[in-house]
Specification:
Chain B: It is a multi-pass membrane protein. The complex is a heterodimer. Chain A has 4 helices and 5 strands. By secondary structure, chain A is an alpha+beta fold. In chain A, strand 3 and strand 4 form a beta hairpin. In chain A, strands 1, 2, 3, 4 and 5 form a 5-stranded antiparallel beta sheet that branches. Chain A is extended. Chain B is mostly helical. Classes of the chains: A alpha+beta, B mainly alpha.
Chain lengths: 168, 226
């Protein structure tokens, strides 16, 4: 009797999990099957990711650094090469998507994806020698008000310790 | 172009687009290497043309895992179009009758036309696009211009006004290119040049390859129904 009760409960939980996965999959697939094709219909505020290196988990950030700032110029040859090979830029565009998702509907997934790339970029640049071993990022939204460009902070992440191996 | 030939060309072009994307992922983030390594292998087999329907099914499963992994498309519209092509191709292979195969593949052709027309429509109903202000904003502060010097284009409102209208008019009249084969080839040539310029200015290289992969569907559609 008790075994039946547990068995039924296990089936119920399994059915609930399957239904949840199917609902989530349908939510992701439907916009693919019936696309809206609303490219650039309105130019929304554009997020920029900035990060700060901290010495401890309680410190208030002072110096913010822009993640992956644009180069001043790019040659036409580089543009041509990027038609075939553009992994860093496409990853940067994915981070823009994650930032927009964080602002519209915050999820741990979006924050984790951004942190992963921030950690990887820091590992490639300036932190391995540093004593600073905590990281925080924020999103700065840029938009136009009349003829002026306005920047404002729209999100600030939790502070996370940096693994000196390159990933947290 | 026969249905079989159009399907085959779509498989080759989509396989190439997926190979290009998968190679980029193998480079960029180590956690995704297994998923994109598998997609790379199946995409090459798709281009070769072995057991296409089962290879397509495997690619659909991998795509589902990718959607879960990134909680949506990795690169917005280009990934959506890639998946749409993949779904339509797979359906066309598994449908039992010729009419149903044509329906599945024709849906892709119609969506390709809509991808241009709807993009034009949502722009032309927006006064900021009609004034050229929206394209100024794209260059001034959107995430897309690939260099700081390109942001300077925002200071050329007259040029951007004409560019805005050129883009909107092209997108809106694209369905009319279906009237003759010649006009369709002209339209697709201009569209490919448009995607090429977007790839150069905004780094949207995946759009270029994926949209071209959908062109055989509209070439077949035009011959079949016009």
């Amino acid at each position: 009797m008790l075994g039946d009760l547990y068995g039924n409960r296990a089936w119920l939980i399994l059915a609930f999990l399957i239904a949840d996965v199917m609902r989530n999959t349908l939510k992701l697939v439907l916009p693919v099957i019936i696309p809206s094709w609303r490219f650039f219909d309105a130019i929304a505020p554009s997020p920029r990711i900035e990060y700060a290196l901290l010495t401890d988990g309680e410190e208030a950030p002072i110096a913010w650094v822009e993640l992956r700032p644009r180069p001043k110029t790019i040659s036409f040859l580089t543009m041509l090469r990027r038609i075939l090979w553009n992994p860093v830029w496409n990853e940067t565009l994915f981070l823009v998507s994650c930032s927009e998702r964080l602002l519209a509907n915050p999820t741990q997934h979006s924050e984790d994806e951004i942190f992963d790339r921030v950690f990887a970029d820091i590992a490639l640049t300036d932190c391995l020698e540093s004593t600073k071993c905590f990281v925080q990022f924020r999103l700065m939204s840029v938009h136009r008000e009349l003829s002026d460009l306005v920047r404002e902070e729209t999100f600030r992440s939790a502070i996370r310790p940096l693994d000196k191996g390159g990933a947290a | 172009m026969s249905l079989e030939l159009a399907l085959r060309w779509t498989e080759i072009l989509l396989g190439f687009a997926f190979v290009q994307q998968s190679l980029e992922h193998l480079k960029s983030h180590q956690n995704d290497r297994i998923l994109f390594g598998l997609r790379l292998i199946f995409s090459v087999i798709l281009m070769v043309g072995l057991q296409s329907q089962w290879v397509l099914l495997a690619l659909v499963v991998i795509s589902m895992l990718m959607l879960q992994r990134f909680q949506g498309p990795y690169n917005g519209g280009s990934d959506r179009m890639g998946l749409l092509i993949l779904f339509c191709l797979t359906l066309a292979h598994f449908m039992p009758t010729l009419q149903l195969k044509e329906l599945a593949f024709g849906y892709l052709g119609i969506q390709l036309v809509l991808s241009y027309f709807m993009a034009g429509w949502v722009k032309v109903v927006n006064p900021e696009w009609r004034r050229g202000q929206a394209l100024q904003d794209v260059f001034a502060f959107s995430a897309y211009p690939v260099s700081l010097s390109l942001r300077g284009w925002a200071q050329r409102p007259q040029n951007l006004f004409y560019m805005s209208w050129a883009v909107m008019l092209f997108e809106l009249v694209f369905p009319l290119t279906l009237l003759t084969q010649y006009s369709l080839y002209m339209g697709l040539g201009i569209a490919a040049a448009f995607h090429f310029s977007n790839a150069c200015l905004f780094g949207l290289n995946r759009f270029f390859w994926v949209w071209i992969a959908a062109y055989p569907s509209i070439i077949w559609f035009q011959e079949r129904f016009f």
